[in-house]
Design a protein that fits this description.
Helices cover 57% and strands 0% of the residues. It contains 4 helices and no strands. It starts with a helix and ends with a helix. By secondary structure, it is mostly helical.
């Protein structure tokens, strides 16, 4: 969380009122990945390409916790 705390003053003038909540959501996902020891780049490169085509009801299946559980199962099965 230290980078988040250090960046707060820089993000005061983020550009638009809608940008603040979006940045907060992205940082929340990044910090969740870090806490779960999930490679952030791997997570986003897997999740983002198909995100636009998924229905909203599938979003809970894309959290870092669910992703790491599925990823570890895939590695364990050898696929």
């Amino acid at each position: 969380m230290r980078p988040v705390a250090l960046g707060r003053k820089n993000w005061i003038h983020i550009g638009s009122p809608q940008a603040g909540p979006k940045v907060a959501a992205i940082l929340s996902v990044v910090e969740s990945c870090r806490r779960l020891q999930v490679p952030v780049r791997d997570y986003f490169s897997t999740i983002l390409p198909g995100l636009a085509d998924l229905p909203i009801r599938c979003l809970p299946d894309l959290t870092p916790a669910v992703w790491v559980a599925r990823h570890s199962q895939t590695q364990a099965s050898g696929a």
